[in-house]
Amino acid sequence: MRTDGDSWDITTSVGSTALFVAAARALAAREPDPLAVDPFAEVFVRAAGREWVELLEDKNPEHPLFDPNFGIPFRLFQAARTRYFDAYFREAVAAGVRQVVILAAGLDSRAYRLPWPDGTVIYELDRPQVLEFKRETLSAHGDKPLAQRREVAADLREDWRKALRDSGFDPSQPTAWLIEGLVIYLPAAAVDQLYTDIEQVSAPGSRVAIEQMEQLSEAARAVFTGNPDDSAEARTEWFQLIYNDQRTDAAQWFADRGWHADHIDLSDYIRAQGRSLPDPTPGTPQISDLVSLVTVVRP
């Protein structure tokens, strides 16, 4: 259960969700014609311990990521959003943006795998334990970032903008911001404040990509956390980590302040990539129907 001022590393609380997502990306990359391939996802998972290694070696078939009603759709969800945000960054640098900020970076490996132009600086914000795990894991694997990568050890519940500026961030330059897998772990008021903080340090030409998830209704919550299947326990644990608040729609929030906004439901995005969604189990909400992807650009 979340509490004010709670803390975590890569294997506990909110931090462990980064490993779960990395495992989903690793498994999705093994599927025929995957939507996205993150070769570093498996590196992170193998570095996390035997339990996670066994997952990759098919020695843990009861794991929620193998559940047909939850794990398989979740893998598709992770691959799709990875593809969307990869494309977002490619478009940003094509437009001349050379300053990138990844909030709650977790095990994001884009600094190591995307083709960044010379002069690109990537700021990754997260808790120091998470940043340390990523740096040491990839260094031990012999990997180096493909752009200038700067770690910013900061808690988004505190004055992260000062920590960002102290690391060299220039608010007069256009920035490509990423908010992936973050919004649901913040209360609604904190999300609005986060958007305000970003707008205040975003020069013209800046852009923000956001993954957002609808509030679960009481009926959906009961189904989502209570089905007596192999993934029920994992879903319940996850629900205890999020804030199931009604939040401001990001596209509308930024559009009201003069930004150009594009919004697509995740299910529609998956279909646009030529992929079919799994047949839903009656009475079970599909995560892709709850998630939408937003990109906003400041003129």
Automatic annotation (TrEMBL):
Keywords: Methyltransferase, S-adenosyl-L-methionine, Transferase. The keyword NAD does not apply. Its EC number is 2.1.1.-. One of its GO terms (biological process) is methylation. GO terms for molecular function: methyltransferase activity. InterPro entries: Ppm1/Ppm2/Tcmp, SAM-dependent_MTases_sf, SAM_mthyl_Trfase_ML2640-like. NCBIfam families: mthyl_TIGR00027. Exhibits S-adenosyl-L-methionine-dependent methyltransferase activity. Belongs to the UPF0677 family. This is S-adenosyl-L-methionine-dependent methyltransferase. It comes from Nocardia terpenica. The lineage of its organism: Bacteria, Bacillati, Actinomycetota, Actinomycetes, Mycobacteriales.
